[in-house]
């Protein structure tokens, strides 16, 4: 079995495959485990423009990031967090936890660090995986009976195409490049997006900036109490060279725009023979959002971002191990397609 990605989903999948005596390789394109919670490499932040590959390599972790999920819901069955930690822990504690998990279950001998998967195809019932060892450029091909994709969904930033954005002369960044409030001292900052990162970054920078505008598409205003310089706004209509006009025709002078607009899926190494269709925000032809209907030995673990996602990833990992050892069976292809179409 090939497992792609050594974050939460990849590590817990590896642990449960090992528990079932399933042979596997764990591919990780970086030189450390942890996925989103990996060690940070900040050299790319010095560059004004980043290529798509560089944006993928950049860590999304900012300096004061804490979990927005209670610690009890972010631990695996066989390794408890230190009970003295805060209920919402800093990212460094998650990083340490995953390294401890990696060591406890002796996953080191299975991992292929700095190995980028560049192509996966299926031929005669076998998965053919082609990878590149990044330090040397050496390309390696290997056959597998099954494939588990654990690369998640927080690699390639999604930035909406907004009218006039190319005219704006201020700074525009995705939240993946955000690091610290001090970078926006006395500025007027526009946050686009009302997800967890949008709210968190807006609250972090509010003591530092003049005004933080938060643009979102929700019809109702937020019910919580926010700082005086926190201003809710509707969706953006257009930009000028130094300001933004919203759909209600109000406007504001802006120095920096931070897009907290999420990420797109990226599995372009899967060719047509793999049996799935991948778009910016979806992967089609998956049963239960996990199992390729055409080829059920292709599995996705941790694909979708849900509350208590760590618990779900471990459940998926356990199910994957049982499926690959023949301890559970699937409905017919027709029933799986019918179930998927009902979503």
UniProtKB/TrEMBL annotation:
This protein's record includes keyword Iron-sulfur: no
Query: Is NADP set as a keyword in this record?
Result: yes
The prosthetic group or cofactor this protein requires is:
FAD
In terms of Pfam families, this protein maps to: FMO-like (PF00743)
- Gene3D superfamilies per the UniProt record, alphabetical: FAD/NAD(P)-binding domain (3.50.50.60)
Q: Which GO terms describe its molecular function?
A: flavin adenine dinucleotide binding; N,N-dimethylaniline monooxygenase activity; NADP binding
SUPFAM superfamilies (UniProt xref):
FAD/NAD(P)-binding domain
Q: Which UniProt keywords apply?
A: FAD, Flavoprotein, Monooxygenase, NADP, Oxidoreductase
By sequence similarity, the record places it as follows: Belongs to the FMO family.
Q: What's this protein's name?
A: Flavin-containing monooxygenase
């Amino acid at each position: 079995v090939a497992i792609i990605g050594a974050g939460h989903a990849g590590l817990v999948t590896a642990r449960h495959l090992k528990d079932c005596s399933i042979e596997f390789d764990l591919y990780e394109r970086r030189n450390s485990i942890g996925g989103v919670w990996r060690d940070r490499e900040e050299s790319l932040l010095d560059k004004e423009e980043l290529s798509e590959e560089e944006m993928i390599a950049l860590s999304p972790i900012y300096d004061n990031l804490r979990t927005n999920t209670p610690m009890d819901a972010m631990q695996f069955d066989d390794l408890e967090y230190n009970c003295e930690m805060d209920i919402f822990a800093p990212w460094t504690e998650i990083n340490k936890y995953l390294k401890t998990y990696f060591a406890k279950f002796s996953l080191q001998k299975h991992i292929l660090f700095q190995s980028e998967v560049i192509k996966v195809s299926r031929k005669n019932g076998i998965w053919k995986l082609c990878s590149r060892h990044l330090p040397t450029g050496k390309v390696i091909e290997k056959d597998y009976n099954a494939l588990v994709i654990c690369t998640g969904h927080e690699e390639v930033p999604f930035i909406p195409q907004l009218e006039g954005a190319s005219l704006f002369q201020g700074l525009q960044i995705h939240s993946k490049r955000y690091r610290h409030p001090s970078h926006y001292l006395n500025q007027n900052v526009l946050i686009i997006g009302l997800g967890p990162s949008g709210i968190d970054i807006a609250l972090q920078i509010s003591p530092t900036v003049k005004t933080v505008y938060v643009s979102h598409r929700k019809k109702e205003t937020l019910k919580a109490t926010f700082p005086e310089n926190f201003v809710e706004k509707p969706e953006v209509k257009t930009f000028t060279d130094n300001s933004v006009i919203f759909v209600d025709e109000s406007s504001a002078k802006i120095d920096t725009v931070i897009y907290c607009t999420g990420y797109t899926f990226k599995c372009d190494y899967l060719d047509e023979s793999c049996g799935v269709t991948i778009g910016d925000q979806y992967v089609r032809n998956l049963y239960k959002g996990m199992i390729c209907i055409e080829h059920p030995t292709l599995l996705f673990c941790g694909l979708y971002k849900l509350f208590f996602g760590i618990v779900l990833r471990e459940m998926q990992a356990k199910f994957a191990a049982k499926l690959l050892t023949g301890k559970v069976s699937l409905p017919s292809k027709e029933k799986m397609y019918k179930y998927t179409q009902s979503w």
